[in-house]
Amino acid sequence: xxxxVRRHGYVTDLITDDCLDxxxxxxxxxxxxxxxxHKAPHRNWMPDLKHLSMYEDExxxxxxxxxxxxxxxxxxxxxxxxxxxxxxxLGYDLKLDAxxxxxxPQPQPLEAQWNAIFGRLxxxxxxxxxxxxxARNEAFRASDLEGDELTRWKxxxxxxxxxxxxxxxxxxxxxVLDYLDQSGLAENTIVVYTSDQGFYLGxxxxxxxxxxxxxxxxMPLIVRxxxxxxxxxxxxxxxxxxxxxxxxxxxxxxxxxxxxxESMRGVLGGRVPEEWRRSIYYHYxxxxxxxxxxxxxxxxxxxxxxxxxxxxxxxxxxxxxxxxPHELNNVYDDPRQAAHLVELKAELERLRRQYGDTxxxxxxxxx
Length: 367
Hints:
By secondary structure, the chain is α+β, with helices and mostly antiparallel strands. The protein has helices at 11-24, 76-79, 84-87, 110-119, 123-143, 147-182, 214-217, 243-250, 265-268, 338-355, and strands at residues 191-194, 221-224, 279-284, 296-301, 304-309, 315-320. Helix content is 34%, strand content 9%.
């Protein structure tokens, strides 16, 4: 509230503490809305001390597409700088202290960033941290890995730290659900668990997000509302645009006309409207921002994913998700897809008109 304050603890726990404190102090009997946002599963993946040794003696399978060679993809796949092999820093990302090289543009050297982050820990926290990582780091330095084996090691350590961070989110989501149960609020409270996007955990050799491939495009979404929702897996297509109209619908408020999404209430309750969408639109336009993902937009239907890269590149990609769920084979130039392409491009244009989207310059070309 206008003051900088340093608090002791793990930030995922502290944010949840604040949320539960706020809910417990609200005026009883009045409706409330709490948005609880966690950033733990975000670069550079710093787990809570109590989770530092999770999975240490386990070998977690790395994605089968880790060594995707992009053989049928456009040059957009080769222009990115979010490669586990080339752009994951041994120090900043993988906790090997001074080993910090990366192609990723940084406001300050990664070594300085790591030292600033690690410097926030008190001496006891540093001692626990060093103990947890020391044996692993010494074994890594002695192994002298290179090539594909080094990439596998990086991916393995990345996934483990990511899952350790997620474990804290799981712990704290559990705390919130327990509070709702114990306070008698669970039956009449809508709980929405979601994210702002998917994330690459080695698929196609990447970390991060942004590309319109499945691992990044798909978002987790779990909704609990015992008064209306029965347990089920919904296959319908929804968008983050739908969240606001949905919340307003449950609150008994009509959404303003400028909102582009649709209320998911019928879908969540198992009463899917006949006119519910059969496709979704996506547009990424922040290039040349890091990590240099080319601008692109596209349409995703139940079976196909059509992507158009533009701006300083002109390329199309088409994936048949039924035959190729990992999107390894771009079939845009396959004559057998010609009829589907006509339909998909017409749908893409319809969606662009519906949302009033354009290719206007959001960022000027890099000189």
